[in-house]
Amino acid sequence: MLGDAREKKREIAVEDGISIREFLQKTVMAHRGLVDVVAGEPPRLTSNVIILVNGREIGVLAGLETILQDGDEVTIIPVSHGG
Questions:
Q1: What count of Cα atoms within 13 Å lies in the side-chain half-sphere of residue 28?
Q2: Fewer CB under 10 Å: which end of the chain, C or N?
Q3: By 3-state DSSP, what share of the chain in percent is helix, strand and coil, each rounded to 5?
Q4: Hey, how many other C-beta atoms are within 10 angstroms of the C-beta on 75?
Q5: Hey, where are the domains in the chain?
Q6: Helices in the chain by DSSP H: which ranges?
Q7: Which pLDDT tens digits describe the chain residue by residue (83 residues)?
């Protein structure tokens, strides 16, 4: 499941065992509102998002190499910076 700041949810079927990195490359980048999630080569997370898998931030899991399983919920939260 993919959610964004506008509380939209999309159910996206992906193969078992795909990493967050692969998920972002194959799926999220196809959705216009989420193109600022990754940048660079090799792709890395920008500082503009927090990504949760089943409510846990991927930094406490395996980062971009976190493996998704059937039924996992991925939440992408845009971060606003100010000063």
A1: 26
A2: C
A3: 25, 25, 50
A4: 17
A5: 2-78
A6: 20-26
A7: 444 445 677 777 788 899 998 888 777 666 655 555 655 666 566 667 889 999 999 999 999 899 999 899 998 887 776 66
Tokens standing for residue 76:
């992408």
Architecture in CATH for domain 2-78: Roll (3.10)
Residue 10, C-beta contacts closer than 8 angstroms, at least 6 positions apart: 1, 2, 3, 31
> C-alpha distances in angstroms, 73 versus 67, 82, 83?
12, 29, 32
Q: How far apart are CA 36 and CA 13, in angstroms?
A: 22
Q: Are 2 and 9 in contact (CB under 8 A)?
A: yes
* Cα distance between residue 2 and residue 41, in whole Å: 24
Rounded CA-CA distance 15/67 in Å is: 11
Side-chain half-sphere exposure of 15, counting CA atoms within 13 A: 4
